[in-house]
UniProtKB/TrEMBL annotation:
It comes from Bradyrhizobium macuxiense. Keywords: Aminotransferase, Repeat, Transferase. One of its GO terms (molecular function) is carbohydrate derivative binding. One of its GO terms (biological process) is carbohydrate derivative metabolic process. It comes from the Bacteria. InterPro entries: GlmS/AgaS_SIS, GlmS/FrlB_SIS, SIS_dom, SIS_dom_sf. Pfam families: SIS. This is Glutamine--fructose-6-phosphate transaminase. SUPFAM superfamilies: SIS domain. The lineage of its organism: Bacteria, Pseudomonadati, Pseudomonadota, Alphaproteobacteria, Hyphomicrobiales. Residues 30-172, 194-327 form the SIS domain.
Length: 337
């Protein structure tokens, strides 16, 4: 069977992150020129998969830098034409192509208002990068599959590198150093046990807490995008509220559990759902059902978990007769306003 571009690009992720590890000077330049202690607020801007990397970044910034984070709504600039007051704020835009007009406009407006602007982009020569004060390149190379994989992993790794430098966090730097090897090992993890439930599902819930929430939302997006299956990525805490009423025998739950302060509450929810006989697939912890590595740093494990999830989705798509590289009605670059 011919290998898809998506499969090939998943396999390139470890090399992408290895390059990011070697390009630490870009993040260090930001650190040397921004006094993080004087920053009142961080604003994160991105859409789609880049927005999921932004959710991950939010938890990193708030837990490691103790700096409040707001998610930017670019339509405030493009549709409502209302510039925000962001003097001295740290504005971080995440984009693969760096070409979406709304992200360009939001970055330009933030810089004009006095924010320190950082662009984490795959295309370092792009309109978004041109509008930012600082650029942290992902340099993952071109992606031929519509579904972004290696650029998402690269974006999240770049977020780790930036926060590690801003916080002066040696443990986080070391975790990033170990990440390429873990991503490479994760290619051997087999999550195809989920596939049987997916083929009979009416919808899928992907849940996690904290640093893994961005990955949960990303996996849910790929399930919708590649398998054409309605999916929602949400906090495990939110799954204990209204969405829980929608669980049934046709709505499998994929849960991601990190070895951190959120572990106990995730474990409790897993036990409840298993007692109620819902189809539940758990990655992480002593009672996990999905293949996993030995736990590492909870700031980088959510990135590693994307590898087996992406591979499972790609393999399931081909088994169902879908082209994982060309989902219907989608283009590689989506230009929103």
């Amino acid at each position: 069977m011919t290998t898809s571009a998506m499969a090939s690009e998943i396999g390139e992720s470890a090399n992408v992150v290895a390059n990011i590890v070697r390009s630490r000077p870009a993040a260090r330049d930001v650190t040397q020129r921004i006094r993080i202690g004087a920053v009142p607020l961080c604003v994160v801007c991105g859409r789609g998969s880049s927005g999921h990397a932004g959710v991950f970044l939010r938890y990193l910034v708030e837990t490691r830098l103790r700096l409040p984070v707001s998610a930017s709504a670019p339509s405030v600039i493009t549709a409502f034409r209302t510039p925000l007051m962001l003097r001295d704020a740290l504005f971080i835009v995440i984009s693969q192509s760096g070409r979406s007009p709304d992200l360009v406009a939001a970055t330009k407006s933030a810089r004009a208002s006095g924010a320190r602007t950082v662009a984490i982009v795959n295309a370092a020569s792009s309109p978004v990068a041109d509008e930012a004060e600082f650029v942290i390149p992902i340099e993952a190379g071109e992606e031929h599959s519509v579904a972004a994989t290696k650029t998402v992993i690269g974006s999240m790794a770049a977020c780790v590198g930036l926060v590690a430098e801003l916080a002066g966090d040696r443990a986080l730097r070391s975790a990033l150093d170990r990440l390429p090897e873990r991503l490479d090992r994760a290619l051997a993890l087999d999550w195809t046990e989920i596939a049987d439930n997916l083929t009979k599902a009416s919808a899928v819930f992907v849940a996690a807490r904290g640093l893994a929430l961005g990955s949960a939302r990303e996996i849910a997006l790929k399930l919708s995008e590649i398998l054409r299956l309605p999916s929602i990525g949400l906090s495990a805490a939110e799954l204990q509220h209204g969405p829980r009423a929608a669980l049934s025998s046709r709505t499998p739950v994929v849960m991601m559990r990190l070895m951190d302060e959120t572990a106990a509450t995730v474990d409790a929810l897993v036990n409840e759902l298993r007692e109620q006989k819902f189809a539940l697939h758990l990655c992480g912890g002593p009672h996990g059902s999905l293949a996993w590595l030995t736990e590492d740093d909870p700031a980088t494990d959510p990135i590693t978990m994307l590898i087996p999830a992406y591979r499972m989705i790609e393999q399931t798509a081909r088994a169902c007769g879908f082209d994982p590289d060309r989902p219907p009605c989608l283009r590689k670059i989506t230009e929103t306003f």
